[in-house]
Amino acid sequence: MARRIGTDDPWTTTGAQLVAWAGTQTWARETRRGRRTTFRAFWLYGIEAGLTTTNAALSLPRVKPAPPMPHPTPDTVFQVAMRRADERERLMLRLAADCGMRRGEIAVAHTDDVYEDMLGWTLIVHGKGGKRRPVPLTSGFAAVLRSQPHGYLFPGDDDGHLSPRWVGKLITRLLDGDWTIHSLRHRFAARAHRVNRDLAVVQDLLGHASPATTRIYVATDDSDRRRTIEAIAS
């Protein structure tokens, strides 16, 4: 970044220079938000390390998040993928579509993560930042997972399991169009929100730290908004 601005040294880059350079970039809104967060953290590191006394990134204006744009895989695309898939791939598809798991979470899923308590069967999902979250399972899907050989559900050469990249590649090539394994997570979120309108429940199931992130995955239904207005007016 400093070289592109022409200063060569980020610690001598001023806030005005950073703002002027960032303003010429053709980044999407979410990319711009991410870069702002990264720059602020980088200069904070510089201050803590004694490399500079000012955070030039504080000059960057706040970027509002984009309106929610859910991107759930259509049922028809999912069903076609299920028919194309082999047994291992069908299990990956179900973990993404029925449990809302990310590709990295699917890659490290283990038979020891399935357990039963007084309420039923649950899968412990190993999420980002080492966080773990429980996702309830139907008895039928729990039986499928418990029938797998003990160990990682998808053995491979990445510390004993498949790499997240390979999991994503396997699933994406089964899905027609521009749908990806992450759009299956959107599908899960949309279906979960349709059944339970409590956003906090969907947030917990997805493992999001903020409800604002969950809102990106679910869209409110026009009929719900209309019923709300009609109920208020009655």
Automatic annotation (TrEMBL):
All copies of domain Tyr recombinase, residue ranges: 67-231
SUPFAM superfamilies: DNA breaking-rejoining enzymes
InterPro entries for this protein: DNA_brk_join_enz, Integrase-like_cat_sf, Integrase_catalytic, Tyrosine_recombinase_XerCD
The keyword ATP-binding belongs to this UniProt entry's keyword annotation: no
Superkingdom of the organism of origin: Bacteria
Tagged with keyword Translocase: no
Entry keyword set: DNA recombination
PANTHER family in the cross-refs: PHAGE INTEGRASE-RELATED (PTHR30349), PROPHAGE INTEGRASE INTD-RELATED (PTHR30349:SF64)
Name of the protein this chain belongs to: Tyrosine-type recombinase/integrase
Organism the protein comes from: Curtobacterium pusillum
